[in-house]
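agent: user wants the full assembly modeled, not chains individually. Plan: 1) parse entity lines 2) check alphabet per entity 3) run joint structure prediction 4) return tokens. Steps 1-2 passed, two entities, 667 residues total. Proceeding.
--- entities ---
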Amino acid sequence: MKSRSGTQASGSKVVRGHTPKGVGPVFSRIASYRREMTGQILGLFSLWGYSEITLPSFEYLDSLSPGLDPTLLNKAYTLQDRGSGHVLILRPDATAQIARLAAQSNETDGNSSRYSYSTSVFRHEDHHILEREILQTGIELFGDPSSQADWEILSICLEGSHLLGLKNPTLVLAHEGIQRSALKHLCKGLTGEAEHAIQRAFFAHDFRGIRERSNARTTAHKNLLKLIERMLEKNHTLTESLKLLSDAEKLEVSGDWTIGVENLAELLRLMKDQKEKSIQVDFALRPSGPYYSGMIFHIYSSGAYQELASGGRYDTLPALFGKSMPATGFAFHVNRIESLFQELPERGHRKGLGVLFSGKGKETREKMTILAQELRRKGIPVVYINSKEERSPFNISRVLPQYPAIGAVLQFEENTVRLVDSEGSIHDFEGELPDPDRVIKSLGER
Amino acid sequence: MALPKGKLFDDATEILRLGGYVFPGLSCESRRLTFDSMDSSLRVLMIRGADILPYVEHGGSDMGIVGLDLILEQGRNVLEPLDLNIGLCRLVVAGPKERPGLPTGRPLRIATKYPKLTEQFFLSRGLSVEILKLYGSLELAPKMGMADKIVDLVATGRTLRENQMEVQDEILVSTGRMVVNRSSWPLKNRAIRTFLDRILPCIPKAPVISGESMSRGTGRR
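--- prediction returned ---
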């Protein structure tokens, strides 16, 4: 049987096409959670002075590619602009896009500017990664090179993690400048293959592998190797890290090393003042992209097998879009956070009310609309049910299981409104509309 | 911890035993898939070698033992803090002794379980290759005319010799590695470090081939 619209009637199901892997719809509970969560986080960002921007979904490839991680560029979806024939790119990363906008904006001249966003990024991923549309909610702070700005980013990230109810959020910090200068020093004079092997061992946290492959001849080289072994052997508390950094300051590695060590030590002192216990330093934390140039960090939480937020300082990125300016920021990976809360009970629709449309007359429909409006004004959801269950007495026990958010049913007839409450009791209202408060009372605590 | 059922199993369990982790009834032949250590500090999951990395990457297991060959082939995002020096083998290019050269007029055809590493290796030498992904008995492919060469793991080279093949190039040397989920590393850092410190003295000082006695002439770290 076909309905008037020509679609197949319920009872037989024809599957036409599939959703691509790595993307998918989100249904009621998760959709509401996503909206609430991003709303809360954007609200927090706003309280710290960040103004929201909405980014275009696609841009010209040539405009964005200078600042994109080559790995991301390989994963990006591209398409041809029908009008100009130019190649368009579906944004694979929000940071590069915002950096480009900031670099080309006059607002950032000499001032620090703060932007927040909540947006999807699109990436082609290999078969074992299940995310191709990734929702990121984050902030970017431009124009402030100080450790205070990095402290601000970390503080907002931690505050947001608590706000989201993440279980035991743990902030793990590192510094890209320290990593880069240490590896450069260790790899001095080595072949490309040996250099690659040492870099791999470093980010794998295999300090024995570094020791075996490095060609330590000088005392300075040997001292650096010893310090790196101490750095990589475990994750460190703030106090332990400050001690390591104090030892690192004494080593003569390079100018970048000294700057990185001082910079991270200053940031850790600021974080220490905050008395936040859930901060660790992992000196070999791998940066999420090649544009990071200072502190980098991830947020982990119990129950999650990957980071839930990541960010850091990326001073070199805006220059790739034409303006050199300091930049720092982070993003929450919303899809990953959602997946932690799959088992949460329904939020939002705590109580509900079903109104059964049974009367066909104009007068009946008017009455129903008036009552529904009054109830909605009081925050009670009202759902119209075009049910086959039109005959009295109305069997609530057969309808309610189909509508878990509904607590009572109102059945409109010519001169009577029948209320079936959450207990299944029937109350008839002859010739008058029931008082909305009376109806709300009948919803019970389902 | 995810423990591989294959060639690394015996050496891996020996390291655990020497480190004081005793698992009653633990055997490669057992149908049970999980075993708890007697001191209840460690649970092992019995998993096929190729599945260790997905288990660790997706948090099914905090740690796992797996060969470097699979780590590089699968490109998973895991930490790899310890080389266990077990299951020594080489990933090599091998071909029939009587046909050592390259084919003419068509791309080289390679049979392998490692398509990614194979393609990378030949591309880095400027050679475009056709990859035939197989799951076992690779030595048969050149014999049956399906491939010119194979890329496979070799420990002693006996199987190649018995099939009239020879090693023509080496892609990498592989040993068993301890891999760790990147979220478990910060969240369970102390427990993981304690575990690694316990097994560290039990690791052979030099890489050993599977099946060879780990203590024979190699010493310990």
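agent: reporting back. Chain B has two domains: 2-87+175-202, 89-173. The domain at 2-87+175-202 of chain B is CATH 3.40.190.10 (D-Maltodextrin-Binding Protein; domain 2).
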